[in-house]
Amino acid sequence: MSRWDPRWKLAAILLACGATACLRTPAAAAAALGIALLLAAISRIPPRRIAARLALIAVSLAPFIAVLPFIEGTTLALVIGLRALAIGMLALVLLATPIERVLVASQSLGLPGPLVQIALLAQRYAHTFADEFHRLRIAWRVRGFQPAADAATARTLAHGIGALLVRSHDRGTQVSHAMRARGFDGTFRTLAPCRTTVADVLGSVAVMAMFVALVVGEQR
Amino acid sequence: MTALAVRGLSHTYADGRAALRGLTFDVQAGESVGLVGPNGAGKTTLFLRLAGVLAGPAGQVAVAGLDPAIPAERKQLPRQVGIVFQNPDDQLFSPTLFDDVAFGPLNFGLPPSEVRARVSEALAAVGLKGFEERSPHRLSGGEKRRAALATVLAMRPGVLLFDEPTMFLDPRGRRELATTIRGLPGTKLIATHDLDFVLDVCSRVIVIDGELLDDGDAKMILADDALLTPHGLEVPYRLKSRETS
Q1: Domain residue limits at A169
Q2: Residues of chain B scoring pLDDT < 50
Q3: What confidence score (pLDDT) does residue A205 get?
Q4: What is the reported pLDDT for B239?
């Protein structure tokens, strides 16, 4: 499934997420989670990664799920929990395809080009930004900085974040220079065009049909 | 044939800082020229003006006969002049090395087969064949430097501008880069503080510090302590030991 044309895959997953968000009964939401897990298995996502993702969502939702039964009832709490797990799993299935291919596909589906370029560059420079933050933390540590809940710590953190933002701005300027020097005119071009096969279409339509069937089945 | 013609080039930034004042020099096709000066001398500004990235008045610069101040000619400049930037992280912005090297040729509108051939050729020229699918941020410092060079070589420019090419390199990386640069065809202008590197690669040196200070034979100029020291530079160790022996 990670080899599917990312445009079809993105369209199918987006529709599946939308359909899942509309489900109102625990049985349908559980079925959605079941299908999402099946898709994750077909995508050959390692079981440990699936378990980690489910655990992360469960922990994030725990405060709401704990309170919700007392306010809205147990059924709604269960539906919300299952829907969140299913959507989280669908996102994992989507990201089994390299993120840059998903972003390029999203441009084919109508996402504005500048937004796609910003996302691609952000994805590339997140690592560089993390490296710079790591160096900053070392620089603090070697000069004896011990974080505490006081004004001095807040000031130091603010200065550090400010320095990172200034460096990011400088880097943005340099990257812009490098892109223009190589003939960039605002249009992002790629050599990896999306190719659709019959299997991609059939697979995507099958995924869409299953989730639409869950919504329609619930209405009856 | 003149590859670069600079005539009375001045540049002042929006904050009023004058980076360059009345620079005039020529570089002939095929020459390797070292551009030497202290921090803030205007070396990077000069490169950005030559590549048409920074705007300026017409008539001050001609690269392969093209004036960056004229929009129609500026559009053709990336085919004629390539810059290898000081920090390779600024130049390697794509998810994979293949995408990065293909970026320039794709912007030229070349057919896919030609783009693939150029990427393959450029990566082979810098010894990075087989690195196509690697993520640029995972490369070592020396590999990043060579990858940045490949991104420019794929555009096959006649003029190559290197901005502090030996920065972040260990001695082996520096040695490899000197060999690579010496083997490259075309006109080369190398801005650096690494005067030993200039001696290895260039036969001519231009010294600037906002304005042109000297222009001539590399060994003569780089041995001139009275010229270099007041401008924050030092005679290379190799030339010093020759003087003392």
Answers
A1: 111-181
A2: none
A3: 92
A4: 80
CA distance to partner chain A, nearest, from residue B40 (Å):
16
CA distance B200 to B182: 9
DSSP-assigned letters across all residues of A2-37 = TTS-HHHHHHHHHHHHHHHHH--SHHHHHHHHHHHH
Euclidean distance between CA atoms A103 and B131, whole angstroms? 23
Q: Is the dihedral of CA B58, B63, B65, B70 positive or negative?
A: negative
| Residue A1 maps to a domain | no
- Closest-approach residue (CA) in chain A for B74: A183
- The ranges assigned to domains in chain B are 2-244
Are B106 and A191 a contacting pair at CB < 8 A? yes
Class of CATH domain B2-244? alpha beta
Cross-chain CB nearest to B53 (options A123, A180, A185)? A180
Look at A120 and B95 and tell me if their CB atoms are within 8 Å. Answer: yes
Predicted-complex ipTM score = 0.78
One domain for residues A27 and A93 = yes
Q: Which residue in A has a C-alpha nearest to residue B109's C-alpha? A: A189
| Shared domain check, A203 and A175 | no
Residues A88, A124: one domain? no
Q: What is the pTM of this model?
A: 0.75
Distance from the Cα of B37 to chain A's closest Cα (Å) equals 21
Parts of chain A with a pLDDT under 70 = 2, 192-194
Beta-carbon separation of B93 and A183 below 8 A: no
